[in-house]
């Protein structure tokens, strides 16, 4: 299933499953993996932690931008990071894949490699899935995890006085998306990452003007100057195409006594809003404590129509990096990868430097 070996329709459903199976290790806790009616996965501490997330062509990715490997990584990372955000260790993924019959079999193989690589990075395997034909590539990845005897870290446990800290990147994926949407950078997949025989992909179902950040989306792709290669900017595009959550920071936070935790898929403000609501508290973000990578400032300058606050906006409202954000009792000594960015107070909602932030604070489907 590599090279110029035809389409998934040529292989047929069972052929596709066999080919995927050969590339996706079952993982250490799976005693029955791909090939039976259901998988059997060990749950060493007695409770199964489970999450599912979809990844939809045109909504979450474009095949013109992302290689099949990128899409596999991203689909896996979205669900794996939800398990980490409960303080749990990932054990196995179930992968539901729908795709057009014209999809090259080698594309499906690359997808399996990306899924397998990211699952392995999180310590998990791939225990099963489902395969069907559809007009667009759609993935629904279920992740299973284990709490190793600990209590789950919920969204609802934050208490006034807690310190809010983040582990992982903020705003990189949003900046990478803005660079791609504006045409300032060409996606690697368009220059060799995807097979030449990839069928035409759909255009984004999201009108560009509604995709955050709005200032970047407004930039005209055609007129954008072709810049010299820039590793810092290319790194942002890579962060968008292949998020790399720090999975082990989830169980680490649980062991440290985190009172609440969430992974940032929609945006820092939006996702902290879920903690604030579930916990019945207010969260204040202090912008001087926010890690704003120099690459973000560079990207904001490289985009034709951005303002001086664009890099900060990406950090505050950009999703898809899947950093973990957690509340810790003030007595906890945080390891270096946990950066304090704010505090929990009495009240409601999320404030930024004690003020309400204008706008939705992140991504929301159907808006
Ligand atoms: N269609 C659905 N049916 C049942 N439960 C759902 C459905 N959609 C979401 N949920 C549940 O709602 C809660 C919040 O889900 P949500 O998808 O917003 O969280 P998330 O996966 O962390 O974020 P995101 O999907 O934005 O990455 C979860 O408990 C999830 O299982
Ligand atoms: C082609 C294209 N256009 C826009 C975006 C941006 N985007 C899509 S979904 C989402 C939030 C997370 O989704 P969910 O809430 O489903 O977890 C974001 C920031 C993208 N990734 N690709
Ligand atoms: Mg979800």
Automatic annotation (TrEMBL):
Residues where Mg(2+) 1 binds: 53, 130
Pathway: Cofactor biosynthesis; thiamine diphosphate biosynthesis; thiamine diphosphate from thiamine phosphate: step 1/1
Sequence ranges of Low complexity compositional bias: 212-221
Domain PurM-like N-terminal: 35-145
Disordered: region residues: 207-227
GO molecular-function terms, A-Z: ATP binding; magnesium ion binding; thiamine-phosphate kinase activity
EC number: 2.7.4.16
Catalysed reaction equations from the record: thiamine phosphate + ATP = thiamine diphosphate + ADP
Domain of life, per lineage: Bacteria
Function noted in UniProt: Catalyzes the ATP-dependent phosphorylation of thiamine-monophosphate (TMP) to form thiamine-pyrophosphate (TPP), the active form of vitamin B1.
Note: Reaction mechanism of ThiL seems to utilize a direct, inline transfer of the gamma-phosphate of ATP to TMP rather than a phosphorylated enzyme intermediate.
Protein name as catalogued: Thiamine-monophosphate kinase
Organism listed in the record: Trebonia kvetii
